[in-house]
Every structure is written in structure tokens, then in C-alpha cells.
Amino acid sequence: MSERLADGGAHPETHAPGARGAAGTIPLAVPNIGALERHYVVEAVESGYVSSVGPFVAEFEDRFAHRVGAKHAIACSSGTAAIHIGLILLGVEQGDEVLCSDFTFVGSVNPIAYLGARPVFVDSETRTWNLDPQLVAAELDRRAAAGEALPKAVEVVHVLGQPADMEPIVDACDRHGVAVLEDAAESLGAGWSAGRYGGRHTGTVGRLGCFSFNGNKIATTGGGGMIVTDDDALAERARHLTTQAKVPDVGYLHDEVGYNYRLTNIAAGLGLAQLERLDEFISAKQRIAHRYDEALSDLPLDLPPRVPGFDATYWLYSVMVSERDGRGRDELLAHLERRGVGARALWRPLHAQPPFADAPVLGGAVGEGFFARGLSLPCSTDLAERDQQRVIDAVRAFFS
Ligand SMILES: *Cc1c(COP(=O)(O)O)cnc(C)c1O
């Protein structure tokens, strides 16, 4: 088992998140699993507490809440499950509208569809690559002025470890009484060091925040997620809904339709170890990003945002390629693949995904540009300096 874990699993797809890839290929981003993880997982197994009842789950929640500075943390079976429950907590129901980042992974929006609610996609800004606050404010103001229904919530995603510009988004939502849910699945460790939210962590600015511990995220539990909130009542209901809405201390009484969404004790053991090593992972990501920034700054690439007062983790180090002489992102991807570099294109915007083709979209051209031009470079936390140099040399060779 330990070897499979150390390999990130025997996965056939070289470009899949968490996959080691073909022999000799530098993978995009693989989990960093070591002795501490083994220790906690073995302890969970030997204790007999393998399922969602067990001491590691509560300990993981407490330490996580403390780490991000939230009053409550509720561990879930995935980030998608966390968002699903989060939307229910905000009262999202069949037919409601939810404004949602357009340029993100599909896990952000699927839970909106599970509830029979309707996403309204909002484009990114180029400064943070995240939700454009002006589009949010203009849409809420316009609807209010026209007497139209307001969305039930705004879901803000912090993509690739980059915090979104929350101040104007929260101002617009507060003005109209619209709740904010943060999808912080990719931004554990990121936050702000200046401004109104200086010292705060992503996920703790909205009414609630959701994290993911999928295999390719900065910290993993194999699969898992977390809801964080300062609201006592929301936290209690989150616990209730994720455990089949079982009423405590009464024989099999379930007072509403609940979900089997709790994290297992084995997974929480893995999470505890990863949380203890989180600072190590964040420094590694930032060191790798810094090295790429230095080595690639003279090339026709847009490097990741560096916004003063916004502390990014550079979870997946991504660049936008400017096409020159008919050669652009796709040619660079093919070139890197031939040289054994596991780069990967960024996401197709959600408005262009078949299940959501009919959903309204505010703007959309920025996210389409990111999809056409964006790719992520290898940035595993254990990436050796000489392997990163191989990536840099390969990228530079493409442009020379
Ligand atoms: C990974 C991810 C999710 C979903 O998390 P899972 O744990 O894979 O269910 C949701 N939103 C974003 C932005 C993600 O990157």
C-alpha cells in the first residue's frame, strides 16, 4: 500500500490530477504522502475506528478551523458535497438563481444543478483571474433597480490558489442582502495581508466557505472536503445534514432528507498529517512559483497574478500563452509532452460545458481567453530543482 500511495496511485492518465504519469515524465502535481500520514492512517485502522465515527474526524475539524481562523469546521466526504450542503444552508432551492464564477472546475457548479437551481455565470477579471466584482455589482444593482428577483447567493471561487477581490463583491452582496459562499477548494493557505480582510484566510469572509481534499489539492485526505463558518446555527445544521439528518439520542429518527456526506476517520487521519505539513507545502508551492516567475518573465507569457495584499499559494502554477507566428498554447502543450513535461490546459469555462449551455453568462470573453491560452506547469510540492529546471529549459526551448 505504501508504494502505491507514494506513487500517487497507479493511474493510467499522465495528465490526470494526482497521476505520476509515464516513466520519466514530470507529473503535473502529485500528493506528498510520507511517514506521518502512514502513522495516522495505521493508527486509525488499528483503533478499529475506520468509518465516520472516530476521534480523528473531530480533531481534524478543530485543527482545520483553528488553522483558517473559522469558528466551526464540518468535515465532508468531498469538496463537491461541502458545496452542496453549503448551498442548502444558504436556502438555495429549486428554481433559485445563484451567481457563480464562470472560469472554474465543474465541481463548483454541479451542486447548484443538484438542487434544481440555476447558475448565472460571471466572467473573471484579468487582475486576479477570479470573479469580476464590477460584473457582480452591476448585475445586482440592475436587478434591484428594475425590481427583478435577486439571486439567492453568489458563489465566489478562488482559483489556482489566488484569492478573489472580496471587498467589492461583499459590498455589493451586503447592499442587496445576498449571501456569499466561497469555493476555497483550491486555495487552502491563501488569504489577504492588507485591506479590510487583512489577516483573513480565503473561505472565512463569506457566510461560509468550502474546501476540498481531493488527491491533487494542496492537502489531501484521498477524497474529502470541509465547510467552515462562524455561524453556530449553520454549523449545527451542516453536521445534521451530512449525517443523514439523524436526530441524536432518538432511535432512527430523521427529521428531514439528509445526506451520507461525512468524512471517514481513516481519511481524517491522512488529513491531520497533511495539515501538520501544510506550511511545508505552501512554502514549496511559493518557492516553485517564484523560480518559474524569475525564469520565464521575458517570454511571451502572462505569469500568475501578483496582487499587493493578496497572498496566493500558487496551488497550480499556470501561465497564459500569447500566440506568435501561429504557435500558441496547444503547440506549447504538445512540445512539453514530447519532452516529458506533464503540463495541462486550464478549464473550459462553465458556460461552454454541455450541461450548462443554456445558462446565462455575464461577459465570458475573459474566461474563454484563459481557456484558449492557459496551461499549468508541474508544481508538485516535492518537485526537485533539477526537474523544475528541465521544465524551464523545455518552455524556453519552445520560444527560442
Ligand atoms: C476540486 C474542486 C472542487 C470539488 O472538490 P472535490 O473534493 O473534488 O469534490 C470544487 N471546486 C473547485 C474550484 C475545485 O477545484
**How many E strands?**
14
CATH topology of the largest domain: Aspartate Aminotransferase, domain 2
Structural class given helices, strands, pairing?
A: alpha/beta
SSE pattern? HHHEHEHEHEHEEEEHHHEEEHEEHEH
CATH architecture classification of the largest domain: 3-Layer(aba) Sandwich
Please state how the strands of the largest beta sheet are arranged side by side: 1-8-7-5-4-2-3-13
How would you describe the overall organization of this protein?
The protein is an alpha/beta fold and 400 residues long. The protein folds into two domains: 35-276, Aspartate Aminotransferase, domain 2 (3-Layer(aba) Sandwich); 278-399, Aspartate Aminotransferase, domain 1 (Alpha-Beta Complex). The chain is built from 13 helices and 14 strands. It has helices at 2-6, 35-47, 55-68, 79-89, 110-114, 133-146, 166-176, 232-242, 265-276, 278-296, 329-338, 365-373, 385-399; strands at 72-76, 97-101, 118-122, 153-157, 179-183, 191-192, 208-212, 225-229, 301-302, 310-311, 318-321, 344-345, 361-362, 374-376. Strands 1-8-7-5-4-2-3-13 form an eight-stranded mixed beta sheet, sandwiched between helices. Strands 9-11-14-12 form a four-stranded antiparallel beta sheet. Strands 6-10 form a two-stranded antiparallel sheet. Helix 3 (55-68) packs parallel to helix 9 and helix 10 (278-296) runs parallel beside helix 13 (385-399). The longest helix has 19 residues, at 278-296. Residues 1-15 have low confidence and may be disordered. The protein binds pyridoxal-5'-phosphate. Pyridoxal-5'-phosphate (PLP) is lined by residues 78-80, 104-105, 107-108, 157, 183, 185-186, 212, 214, 225.
